[in-house]
Recover the amino acids of this structure.
């Protein structure tokens, strides 16, 4: 992790100028988020994370706000990608981004901002009293009404509330309230050991358990300067790609269900279940929890490569056949084509991640740009990329990634055949690790990022950022020309997790 400034830190106004300058122009860095660290009596330290082009290491630009003045001029007025991050800074740290276009609560609708939990400090706030009415309406006039969609909805859906402001069928505006899912994980990480922190990271976003464990462990390993044995790197990539397969199948399940294709929904549900059961037979957990540990992995897959390979071959063929059949069904394609279009210019300016970004011309993928574990040696093939930006393009990206995942899994299994059962699977961390670092991994939803601060072997501050958090704010922007019956297709095509947003 590269610190772009040394002590003393720049003043907030200077820091803001540095961030904006780095994120503009032809060689602009990709904005990955702005985060806070509470520092007891010293106030709040702000860290803007940027990824320069053609550089694997992130740049961290820092400033400090004093306890007497927890405010600065908002980045969001000129850098739209900071919009939600600054709202979170207000919720968790009581920081005020002056001039923010809509500073209403996102994670914690507190009636008293003085109760902010201040992650990174020993502060334990009293029981919080959220003000659940603290969301303003923007679309008003005769015939306009608001549909509160959630937080509890029919079927198996996470707790989220969409406030759809509409005159009838068109959707001019959608507001998103995610605080129903907030669990205070940033505070829960404090004072944990790296091993216990991994258990918590796996549960930050259940559908991306492996990716979160990897990103967290990468941060720990970079902080401790520990390498990971090759067999462990292979094993990590093995479970990460199976997780990608299961997630992309889940998106197709929801899309076909929204279109009323009962047979296709059942078929893709069967394929996902077969994938999850394979993961369980290899790791004793349907989500591969407990496999990834700091410094390596707990164990190799329980099934031998010779047993896994033919099963993956059959699964790949069945998925490909059903995927191709669905993508040749006119009534299905009619619902995908042109729906929920995310303009490429907006996607690029925001730094959209994962399939959402790739479908709108963004080529961000941590496995290519900043390879880790076995991805440094595996043949990834061409990066899937489209420019249409609609539900169709996002579905096509996932279809391409599915095929790539099975190709990668075949390579990994071939490499695992040469691994001896006596080979090292984990390098122990040195005692008393102290320092700061960043770690990342490519989840099925896109880049997962962890900022970590450790003192004497304990976690002082851990800031997880999922692709779900970074991308969901774009959900506001994709309803131009769409109607209420398009809503489930657009939501499914984003493929995000509310738990990953409201950590």
């Amino acid at each position: 992790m590269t610190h772009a400034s040394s002590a003393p830190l720049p003043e907030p106004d200077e820091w803001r100028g540095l961030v904006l300058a780095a994120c503009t122009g032809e060689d602009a860095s990709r904005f990955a988020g702005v985060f806070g660290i509470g520092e007891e009596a010293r106030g709040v330290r702000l860290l803007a994370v940027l990824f320069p082009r053609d550089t694997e290491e992130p740049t961290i630009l820092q400033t400090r706000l004093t306890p007497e003045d927890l405010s600065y001029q908002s980045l969001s007025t000129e850098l739209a990608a900071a919009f939600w991050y600054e709202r979170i800074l207000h919720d968790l740290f009581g920081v005020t981004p002056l001039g923010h276009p809509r500073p209403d609560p996102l994670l914690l609708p507190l009636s008293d901002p003085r109760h902010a939990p201040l992650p990174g400090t020993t502060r334990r706030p009293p029981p919080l009293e959220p003000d659940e009415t603290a969301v303003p309406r923007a679309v008003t006039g005769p015939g306009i009404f608001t549909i509160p969609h959630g937080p509890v909805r029919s079927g198996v859906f996470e707790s989220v509330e969409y406030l759809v402001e509409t005159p009838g069928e068109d959707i001019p505006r959608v507001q998103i309230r995610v605080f129903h899912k907030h669990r205070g994980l940033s505070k829960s990480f404090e004072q944990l050991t790296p091993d216990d922190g991994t258990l918590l990271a796996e549960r930050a976003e259940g559908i991306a358990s492996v990716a979160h464990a990897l990103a967290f462990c990468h941060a720990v390993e970079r902080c401790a300067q520990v390498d990971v044995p090759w067999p462990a790197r292979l094993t990590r990539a093995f479970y990460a790609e199976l997780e990608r397969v299961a997630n992309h199948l889940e998106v197709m399940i929801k899309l076909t269900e929204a279109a009323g294709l009962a047979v296709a929904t059942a078929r893709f549900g069967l394929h996902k279940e077969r994938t999850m059961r394979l993961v369980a037979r290899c790791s004793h957990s349907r989500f591969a929890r407990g496999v990834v540990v700091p410094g390596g992995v707990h164990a190799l897959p329980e099934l031998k490569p010779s047993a896994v390979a033919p099963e993956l071959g059959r699964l790949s063929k069945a998925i490909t056949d059903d995927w191709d059949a669905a993508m040749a069904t006119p009534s299905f394609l009619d619902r995908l084509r042109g729906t929920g279009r995310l303009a490429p210019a907006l996607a690029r300016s925001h730094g959209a991640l994962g399939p959402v970004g790739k479908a709108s011309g963004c080529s961000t993928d941590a496995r290519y740009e900043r390879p880790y574990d076995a991805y440094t040696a595996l043949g990834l093939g061409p990066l899937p990329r489209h420019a249409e930006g609609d539900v169709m393009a996002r579905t096509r990206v996932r279809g391409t990634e599915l095929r790539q995942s099975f190709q990668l899994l075949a390579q990994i299994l071939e490499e695992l055949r040469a691994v001896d059962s006596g080979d090292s699977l984990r390098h122990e961390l040195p005692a008393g690790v102290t320092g700061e670092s960043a770690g990342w991994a490519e989840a099925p939803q896109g880049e997962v990022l962890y900022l970590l601060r450790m003192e004497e072997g304990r976690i002082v501050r851990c800031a997880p950022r999922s692709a779900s958090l970074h991308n969901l704010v774009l959900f506001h922007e994709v309803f131009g020309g769409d109607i209420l019956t398009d809503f489930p297709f657009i939501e499914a095509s984003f493929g995000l997790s509310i738990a990953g947003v409201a950590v």
About this structure: Residues 231 and 312 are 20 Å apart (CA to CA). The longest strand covers residues 446-455. The two ends are 23 Å apart (CA to CA). The longest helix spans residues 230-258.
